[in-house]
Amino acid sequence: MPKRAIIHVFLAIFFIVAVGCAAMGTPGHKYFMKGQVLEVSGGEAYVCIGSASGAKAGQELPVYRYVQTKTLGEKQRSSYRREPVGSIKITQVVDEHFANASVLKGDIRANDMAELMK
Prior knowledge:
This protein is α+β, with helices and mostly antiparallel strands. The protein is built from one helix and six strands; from the N terminus they run H-E-E-E-E-E-E. The chain has one domain: FlgT, C-terminal domain (Thrombin, subunit H). It has a six-stranded antiparallel β-barrel.
């Protein structure tokens, strides 16, 4: 095969791969930031989402609970579903890791997960 034909085949393959990768969209998760609710008391929550995650006072985040749906055998993993349980609003970013929030609605508990979608 002549050298020029090899170069054309290589360029065609490269182009196909590049177009395929571009069409895939952005990699990663659907959420922008995610953190655990550490404590809830009197309508206030302390969450593990801080300035390092991009948290800002005033942001509203839906909160989810992961509920076990069935326990499998010893060698298999259990199955879980994600249930929406309410929402919070960040009132103060404490530092790069933590924030205070007020419970807007729902039955928010410690160990629930707050997420800000992209």
